[in-house]
Write a structure and sequence with these properties.
Layout lengths: L1 E6 L3 H6 L2 H8 L3 E5 L5 H7 L7 E5 L9 E5 L5 E4 L4 H4 L4 E5 L4 E6 L10 H18 L5 E6 L12 H4 L8 H11 L3 E3 H5 L8 E2 L5 H4 L2 E2 L2 E6 L6 E6 L11 E5 L2
Parallel strand pairs: 1-2, 7-8
Antiparallel strand pairs: 1-14, 2-4, 3-4, 5-6, 6-7, 8-12, 9-12, 10-11, 13-14
Helix pairs in contact: 5-7
């Protein structure tokens, strides 16, 4: 069983950059998209060529902003949008689909913004999201994937010293927020399998960052501890272009 996750930085733009072929060649059972930047009907239109998958979508109220979607071969038992808090949910950041063996949660975590203007909001969001996940996993094991907008450890970004507490994505507040998410009973699957590997999933579009591999690992699979024995691999597909992020994948065996 394979799950892929990708912040596509606009689904309509991604489809214009060969996303459909990338999707088909991934041979994924579940495919999570973040930052679709489109309304529900626009996402459906953009992905109309894809057959054999159920499409679940949660878009922001604001047009052209945020948005998440899940494509799944298996029909969801239940679909939930948001986390039950209107202030957060209007931004279209969380989509949860329940399947037979787990609940798959697709998330696009808020960015603290330039000048860390939204850092206080981000801190509040992290706490509320952790509480949502803690409650959700009482039902069955959860897999949480997406763009978490944080490099959790120094190994997860190219220049930790110069960015610490200065740049969104690597402040102690955001690091503590990720600690809070993991504390509900989750494992960072890539880091668990590859504790010493330096690999990134995001590169700024400026200064030729990707060519120089001056990147950040912002995209994660946080898997329920109860699924650890079923986790076979967790990969970061750095060779796939089309966005400022690259796809990540999780392989499970039941």
């Amino acid at each position: 069983m394979k799950i892929t996750s990708w912040n596509v930085n606009g689904i309509r733009a991604a489809v214009g950059k060969d996303f459909i072929n990338e999707f088909n060649s991934s041979n994924s059972d579940f495919y999570c998209l973040q930052e679709t930047k489109a309304q529900n009907d626009q996402v459906e239109k953009a992905l109309e060529e894809i057959n054999g998958y159920h499409l679940s979508v949660h878009s922001a109220v604001k047009k052209g902003y945020s948005g998440v979607a899940i494509l799944s071969k298996e029909q969801p038992i239940q679909i939930s949008t948001g986390i039950g808090i209107e202030e957060h949910d209007q931004e279209g950041r969380v989509l949860s689909c329940e399947f037979e063996k787990f609940v798959l949660v697709n998330v696009y975590v808020p960015n603290a913004g330039s000048g860390l203007k939204r850092l206080d909001y981000r801190s509040e969001w992290d706490k509320d999201f952790a509480a949502y996940l803690k409650k959700l996993r009482k039902k069955k094991p959860i897999i949480v994937t997406g763009d978490f907008n944080v490099a959790h450890e120094p190994i997860d970004l190219a220049r930790p010293k110069s960015n610490y507490n200065k740049t969104s994505g690597y402040t102690q507040v955001e690091i503590d927020g990720m600690d809070g998410l993991l504390s509900v009973g989750l494992i960072d699957s890539f880091r668990d399998l590859y504790p010493e590997e330096v690999k990134y999933s995001f590169w700024s579009v400026r200064f030729g960052a990707r060519a120089k591999n001056v990147g950040w690992r912002l995209d994660y699979f946080l898997t329920d501890k109860r699924l650890k024995k079923h986790t076979k691999d967790s990969t970061i597909d750095t060779d796939i272009m089309g966005s400022d992020h690259c796809p990540i994948s999780l392989e499970l065996e039941f």
